[in-house]
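Entry 14. Ran structure prediction on the chain below.
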Amino acid sequence: MGHLSNLIKTRRQSAGFSLREFSERCGLSHTYIKNLEETDPRTGKEIVPTVESLDKIARALNMTLEELLKEIGYIKKDKNLTFEGSNLKMIRGNKSYKEITDDIFLKTKRKIDPSVYEDMEKGNDESPSPILVDILANYSGVDRSFFYRKNSPDDLRRAQLSEPYRVYDDHKKSPLDHIKDADLKEFVSNPENIDYLLLAKELKSKKIKVKFIRDMIFDE
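Output, structure tokens:
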């Protein structure tokens, strides 16, 4: 996803948006966009966004989701690349369309309408939304590229081992979710402020009250 971070930063700056302005356009947090452009300060690794977040970023960049996914190499630019509906029939097995979509929702908490699943399976939609493909990949435990080639049950089992679905963490519950003040959350997330946080922890461990510190330091 390294190209994504460069793409966001370059286009954001060329449009004259600050990090905060761009994050508001996306409907994503300022800290999240900053970490996308750089790395996760907790792990030092790049953040891999969900397709839903990529959709928001694409809109803010005046691109379609498909254009963004192709630009960052998330899906191939091959014009002849088509969705292979036979994979859905294999995954569905003996289940009805309602049963398979109910099972998808049960396991992923994301919905696909039974009629939409049927259209994709029967080849009536050769280019389904990347969001739908992401749901199917999540449910099946395979990379999205799996659905753009014809596969057998053995191929599915191999793909689950060699090309598993990547579990994205940008929507997982954060230990900072209880902090409602955006500036405070940003302060706590910033690794440059670690000394202040360690001091606060030490004061807390010594049971020194906040009021005492305020009165002693800020008393005018």
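Confidence is low (pLDDT under 50) at residues 168-173. Will compare against last week's run tomorrow.
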